[in-house]
Amino acid sequence: MLEIAILAIVIALIFDFVNGFNDSANSVATVIGTRVLRPLQAVTLSAAANFAGPFIFGVAVATTIAKGIVSPDEITVYMIIGGLAGAIAWSSLCTYFGLPISNSHSLIGGIMGAGIAGLGFEQLVLGGLTKVFAGIIIAPIGGMIFGIALAGAIIVFLAKRRPAVVNRTFGRLQIISSAWFALTHGANDGQKTMGIIVLILFSANLIDEIHMPLWVIFAAAGAMGLGTFFGGYKVIKTLGVKVTRLRPYQGFAAETGGGMMLAIFAIFGIWWWNDVSCFCNIWNSCKYNSCNYWHYHGSRCSAKKTCGPLES
Fold this sequence. Notes:
Elements (H helix, E strand, L loop, with lengths): L1 H25 L2 H5 L5 H19 L2 H8 L9 H20 L6 H17 L6 H33 L4 H25 L4 H12 L10 H18 L1 H10 L5 H20 L6 H12 L5 E2 L2 E3 L2 E3 L3 E2 L5
Antiparallel strand pairs: 1-4, 2-3
């Protein structure tokens, strides 16, 4: 059983590495979209911040994942391996085509499916799944509220400022906000693999109770950080460059708002995935693209409100 458990942990860490290609890369896509950082700088920042997240905010989300999907007393290592294998295959396929998907959906769904196939619906943990699906419902709503509120407040209070000063200021601030977003991602969505590894250890009788060994935190956070550094550029290019053209203040609003939601959920042990945070905050902060206060006309800038496509 020890050998099977080691194999399952290795597969989980491979999934975490692949997760770094996609989900973690999303967390710095906006700082690429605003051209504040180069791709290599952005993925390096994301990798470091994602690694630090669990050590700063704790591992409440990982504990929820370990206890709250399928009954840890009943699930077997073989079921967990099956769920991981399906999640890795799906994530790799989507990453190959540059699609910013949610690896978290793949993993949670894979574990649930394996549990249902092997144990039946009665072994699903309804209390934990309620937390998970509550996050799914609340996340886009909260993301939209924060995104609209922050971008709107920036426009209202700084509309009369010189556009060159505004863009320069938020270009600098966005480095901080992107690090904040990646940090809170590591504290929330980045913890799902930690929970799965603990579930493997418990189901294989290698630990007596659900708790988070320090080596698990280091291993999972390190695998995700390396995945982001070595494989995140393709998805970053899709989301940060091809989806929309962002101004620095919009990127700042998107990252700060998303990070706030992730931090709140991490503290309460509620899992959610950063794709919703990233997409909803980008979308809503970019509602101001069509009526933009800092609009460029050739080499000159105008701080008045102008409607229509952005020019640069």
